[in-house]
Amino acid sequence: MVFANIEYLFLLLLLIPYIVWYIMRRKNSEATLQISDARVYAHTPKSYKNYLLHVPFALRIIALVLIILVLARPQTTDSWQNSEIEGIDIMLAMDVSTSMLAEDLKPNRLEAAKDVAAEFINGRPNDNIGITLFAGESFTQCPLTVDHAVLLNLLKDMKCGLIEDGTAIGMGIANAVTRLKDSKAKSKVIILLTDGVNNKGDISPLTAAEIAKSFGIRIYTIGVGTNGMAPYPYPVGGTVQYVNMPVEIDEKTLTQIAGTTDGNYFRATSNSKLKEVYEEIDKLEKTKLNVKEYSKRQEEYRWFALAAFLCVLLEVLLRNSILKKIP
């Protein structure tokens, strides 16, 4: 409950001197009689009127309090919010070439990328998110959707060997652009993750970046892989042997792709670094939330006014009936 004219509540302070005046007045108006011993009157039964003597004054005080509350206009409020969410459309372009099986990240680059991408998706419930996979060619694993349960299931099923091997970065970008170009969202983003150098595809990475820029799409690029050599599992006669392979990431091209579209390039050399990269992108691309607040107020003075009227009425009845002859 709130009060529209809360300043009227200060009138309650005026009741203090009124109560003091009443107490002093009653004390001075009581008749006294000096006697040598009052013990004989100790057990004299008192009339019920003695117990009602101060009730009219108490009723008057209560009535005044209630009248002041009426002047302060007590109100109850019903409030609610109307949220307008402006989501971001995001395509995750992920490299699934066989080099992603290297185990410089644990358990390997691909699984580490899937785990961190799943956390990223779970943290953005209001955004349309899709997945594009690329190796020697590219295809859409999941179009833009807000059904993140389906998206996460498809992400979990992602693995190497689904398509021709190689690294067609330009084709991966072009496929993601195709999914985003007709989007009505004000912010359109591609997060491209790769561990290699473009060596396949009909579209160069920089040409694909220019196409993305023309549609207002920003690209964040991530180079995943440690520095130097990385252990790569190589099947031999029914067993797996590990061969150290050099880590070759075309950081110059990835930086140019990001710069062309006003994005950023990140390097992830470990699981923790990869997680930090996605957290940084999450901070850069925040969903806009506009909240309108509404409230409805109802006047509640009627009950206070009715109670004040009943107190006054009861006081008048007592003074003019039971307590009529008592000063």
From TrEMBL:
Alphabetical UniProt keywords: Cell membrane, Coiled coil, Membrane, Transmembrane, Transmembrane helix
Family matches, as SUPFAM superfamilies: vWA-like
Pfam family membership, one: VWA
Domain VWFA, residue spans: 89-281
Coiled-coil ranges from the UniProt annotation: 267-294
Residue stretches spanning the membrane: 6-24, 51-72, 301-318
Protein name, per record: von Willebrand factor type A domain protein
